[in-house]
Amino acid sequence: MAVKIVKGVLKTIALLIETVLLIAFALYSIMFVLCKGPSESARDLFVMSVRETSAIGFLANIFFTDEEIAAIEAKSDDVYIPPTDTSLVTIAAKDPEQTVETSAQPATDQWGLVDEDGDGIIVEEVHGSGYSGYMMVVLDPSRVIMGCVPSSFGYRGYTVAEMVEYYHAVAGINAGGFYDPNGQGNGSIPDSLVVFDGKIYYAELGVGKGFVGFDSNHIMHVGKMSKQQIIDADIQYGVCFGPALVVNGEMADESSLVSGVNPRTAIGQRSDGAVLLLVIDGRQVISMGATYLDIAEIMVRYGAVNACNLDGGSSSLMWFEGDYINNCASVIGIRPVPDTFIVLAKED
Q1: Quick one: which of 66, 98, 229, 337 has the most CB atoms within 10 Å?
Q2: Crossing angle for the helix pair 2-36 and 40-51, nearest 10 degrees?
Q3: What is the pLDDT of residues 211-249, one digit of tens each?
């Protein structure tokens, strides 16, 4: 009897090993076709998708040398981004004497959106081919600041929820990238320049693929700005990641929007100053993720004059009304980050 049990267990183990090997071979075959097949766009999509993921970035190295990977990733680096034209954004001045008008039917703005509950925040679901997510429109740009605790740099990061709570805010999204060796970083060290409350941190790390920040007039700037340009523009809050998605009312050159399919976070601003906060779910059956081109098109659809991609992947999260409203792609749970963009509570 014992012999039969042992044989049964061994057969089961053998079957499991065979199944795993068949699955591994099938996956390898698919990756081989993507990487070595005739489609250059399929190759680039595979490389960019895995390289944007800290946990499986090594898969690209199975099929390509470091030089070949660098050449694929560098395709978008030389695209020129003009300076932000701040005249394209006009923010209505607040009148302290003005009383809030109420009506039975909230007004629809020129982009077809309605602030039904009057809280100054509009949240809509967004859907596309292979992805879903949320767009948050914050009508008053002065309510959007960077949630960040510089005294904690190098010591600890904060989840989006923790940062929202720290500032007694009502909403927030993740922002810039961070030092994350082997996917084990604690979110405490930005991987590029950060501006908080007008002070620049980690300037020596540069701006990477792009910078996005708000000046003292709450106008958003995007581009590959130098430290001096950031100072001259009076930037108060800003992070780096990129690329720029929309620049001065025009979608960025498609050659700069080459990417894989992954969870995404982005920020934009309309001509009336309203701030657009976007998250796209990814690495899920119902939402594989989006490309840079996908989120650029979403930003244009919502009226963005300027927009920029932020850190994505397992960091992509949006907090609103006491909870995360999108799904976290991280298999290890909510990750801490060094900085966020948060929405302050509405003034009474």
Answers
A1: 337
A2: 120
A3: 999 999 999 999 999 999 999 999 999 999 999 999 999
Task: Please say whether the beta carbons of 188 and 336 come within 8 A.
Answer: yes
pLDDT at 103 over 60: no
- Per-residue DSSP letter, 89: -
Distance CA 98, CA 112 (A): 25
Please tell me the chain's helix, strand, coil percentages from 3-state DSSP, rounded to the nearest 5.
30, 25, 45
> Does residue 101 have a pLDDT over 80?
no
Answer yes or no: are the C-beta atoms of 273 and 91 closer than 8 Å: yes
> What is the C-alpha to C-alpha distance for residues 18 and 51, in angstroms, rounded to an integer?
29
Contact status, residue 162 vs residue 299, Cβ threshold 8 Å: no
Q: Phi/psi of residue 231, each to 5°? A: -65, -45
Domain ranges (residues) in the chain: 2-76, 86-94+102-343
Helices H / strands E in the chain, number of each: 7, 17
CA dihedral of 180, 184, 186, 190, whole degrees rounded to 10? 0
Give the strands of the sheet with 304-309, arranged side by side: 121-128, 131-138, 275-280, 264-270, 304-309, 244-247, 250-251
Q: Which residue has the tokens 């009897």?
A: 1
The answer to whether 334 and 317 have CB atoms below 8 angstroms apart is yes
What tokens appear for 128 in the block?
């596309």
| DSSP assignments along 262-319, one per residue | B-EEEEEEETTS-EEEEEE--SSSS---B-HHHHHHHHHHTTEEEEEE---GGG--EE
pTM, full prediction: 0.84
Tokens of 72: 């694929």
**Cβ atoms of residues 50 and 260 within 8 Å:** yes
